[in-house]
Write a structure and sequence with these properties.
The chain is mainly alpha-helical. It has one domain (about 5-125). It has helices at about 5-30, 40-60, 70-95, 100-125. Helix 2 (about 40-60) packs antiparallel against helix 3 and helix 3 (about 70-95) runs antiparallel to helix 4 (about 100-125). The longest helix is centred in the middle third of the chain and has 29 residues, at about 70-95. About 30% of the residues are buried.
Length: about 140
């Protein structure tokens, strides 16, 4: 069995931290603020988890601080806005409509987020700049 890369391990560590921030904000909305909807509380909590995730991915996981911050941030926001909508929709259906435990729904949504976040982060948001090798053509073409 192939051993996970160091980058993927860093991604998981960062993800645990960002998920903890997100989950604590979700619990605050549901249990302290009594928002009345786990889906709404989740959509409000998501930006805190997303910001934590972006900073960790940029500086710790993919180590692409040399890239264009604005471009990375815009791609990351687009990616995680889509993931947050999927996450919130899943939690809304799971807990608000089907009346299942929101803790379990959150874990299912996080599993989806891990897969989408790593693949898109690596290949779209924080992709390494292409390496341009010198031409081997003797005529410089």
């Amino acid at each position: 069995m192939k051993r996970p890369s160091a980058q993927f391990i860093r991604f998981l560590i960062n993800g645990v931290l960002a998920t903890a921030v997100h989950y604590l904000a979700l619990r605050l909305g549901v249990e302290v603020l009594k928002l009345g909807s786990a889906g709404l509380a989740n959509l409000l909590a998501a930006p805190l988890g997303i910001a934590t995730s972006f900073l960790g991915n940029r500086y710790f996981v993919f180590q692409r601080q040399g890239g264009d911050l604005l471009q990375q941030a815009l791609r990351f926001i687009g990616l995680y806005a889509a993931i947050a909508l999927l996450h919130g929709s899943l939690l809304y259906v799971w807990s608000d409509l089907l009346k299942f435990n929101y803790h379990i729904g959150f874990l299912i949504a996080v599993a989806m987020q891990v897969v989408l976040g790593y693949l898109a982060g690596k290949h779209l948001v924080f992709k390494a700049a292409p390496v341009h090798l010198p031409s081997r053509d003797p005529h410089g073409i």
